[in-house]
Amino acid sequence: MPSKTKMKNAAIAARSAALPSIPKELLDQFVSGPMMGAEVNAAPMAFKKALIERALGAELGHHLGYPSGGTKPEATSNQRNGTSGKTVMAEDGAWQARPLEAMCPVVFYDALRVKIREDAVVRNKAIDLALGVLPDGTRDILGLWIGNTEGAKFWMKVFNDLKTRGAADCAEVGSAVARPVATA
Fold first, then answer.
1. Which residues contact 162 (CB under 8 A, 6 or more apart)?
2. Quick count: other Cβ atoms within 10 Å of Cβ 184?
3. Is 55 helix (H, G, I), strand (E, B) or coil?
4. Sheet holding 121-133: strands in order across?
């Protein structure tokens, strides 16, 4: 009987074999010489962003009934209105670490209690949300955090995270005492 290590290695090899092969020309565009760790980590994120934008564009073309750059069919009332870069929310955490507006007159905090399977055990967790209202009235989700509790240490981490990302002039709403984020 094969050992657990051999079975695990065989499973990894099978998953790797199922991956699509990447053409050398594409790799040459990403790698022109030695790369530092940050560059190695940035390359797949950039590729993932471009891949998602391409897939979303194809999905939009399918929905509208004509490809990008094509002529809009007469029977279609919806149409393309230009292109712009998209913010891709991925598990890499790029969205959660993005810089924030310095001034956010109001920030609402709320939590949703959910059950999450973790280490084969279902646990109660809180998904905390910070929603900022910007000076022009638009709303922006400043961040989402998953935690076991909502104690003082947790909220200090949230406030410090917001302050580090640039939201220095904000007043919180939604907790027992409203106070500026900058003093947290």
1. 100, 107, 130, 142, 143, 170, 181
2. 15
3. helix
4. 139-147, 121-133, 103-118, 169-173
In angstroms, what CA-CA distances link 129 with 30, 94, 109, 183, 184? 36, 17, 6, 20, 17
Angle ∠(96,100,106) on CA atoms, nearest 5: 105
Question: Residue 131 carries which side chain, given as an amino acid letter?
Answer: L
pLDDT, tens digit (0-9, with 9 covering 90-100), for 107-148: 888 888 888 888 888 888 888 888 888 888 888 888 888 887
Phi, psi (deg, nearest 5) at residue 177: -130, 130
CA 26 to chain centre: 25
Instruction: Say how many CA atoms lie within 13 Å of 3 toward its Cβ.
Output: 3
Radius of gyration of the chain, Cα coordinates, nearest whole angstrom: 23
H or E stretch at 150:
none
Alpha-carbon gap, residue 77 to 72, rounded angstroms? 9
pTM of the predicted protein model: 0.45
Ramachandran region of residue 120, left (φ > 0), alpha (ψ -120 to 50) or beta? left
Q: Which two tokens stand for residue 172?
A: 């919180």
The residue ranges of every structural domain in the chain are 4-64, 103-183
**Stretch 69-77: mean pLDDT, rounded?**
79
Spatial distance between the Cα atoms of 31 and 150, rounded to a whole number of angstroms: 44
Six-digit token pair at 32? 């022109």
Helix (H, G, I), strand (E, B) or coil at 23: coil
